[in-house]
Amino acid sequence: MPHLMVCNRPLSWTLILVLGYLFYLLLGALVFQLLEKQAEAKSRDQFQLEKLKFLQNYTCLDQQALEQFVQVIMEAWEKGVNPEGNSTNPSNWDFSNSFFFAGTVVTTIGYGNLAPSTMPGQVFCVFYALFGVPLNLAFLNQLGKGLSTHLINLEGWVHKPGRARVQSLICHSYIFIAFFKCDFQKSS
User: Fold this and answer.
1) Which of 25, 63, 66, 98 has the fewest CB atoms within 10 Å, measured from its CB?
2) Which of 108, 100, 131, 79 is nearest to 32 (CA)?
């Protein structure tokens, strides 16, 4: 594959693709965090206020009050707010969770435990996936080509004349490790 020249040095497309892919994931995480974290904090604060009002105003529950409180809990849950505990629960949209979500979007895994609740977040998610899924496919394709090339080179190196001793050493090492592991597991 031809190389891109930067400062009179070749730069491989694989490196550009890996860096672009990582940058895309980091950018997506940052945007998801910016779009969703504030809405989540607002929902969390609203839930905490409702919970305090409930605890202060209702010494004896009636059916209607209970139904209203359950409705508030369900709305908080749908927006990703955990109704247990207090408002110091960690955010679902901190950078690490946003990065995880961005990765599940472009890999089409869709783990399902986190989703944008704001309209801008949902719109961004659609366009992020629209460009991210093909980028992920290109990344995986390039990764597969690179692994294939390196495995073919490794196979060629191992099967050269005079390498039978290396093959034997590797094989015996694997057998030793496997038996040692089995013996160690039995004694534990």
Assistant:
1) 63
2) 100
CA distances from 37 to 42, 44, 78, 119, 131 (A): 9, 10, 15, 13, 23
Question: Regarding beta strands 4-6 and 9-11, do their DSSP bridges make them parallel or antiparallel, or are they unpaired?
Answer: antiparallel
Return the number of other C-beta atoms located less than 10 Å from residue 103's C-beta. Answer: 16
| Whether the Cβ atoms of residue 107 and residue 136 lie closer than 8 Å to each other | yes
Residue range 59-78, pLDDT digits in tens: 776 667 767 877 887 787 77
Please tell me whether residue 135 adopts helix, strand or coil conformation. Answer: helix
Half-sphere exposure of 91 (CA within 13 A, CB side): 18
Instruction: Show the beta-strand stretches assigned E in 35-150.
Output: none
Residue with tokens 């990065």: 99
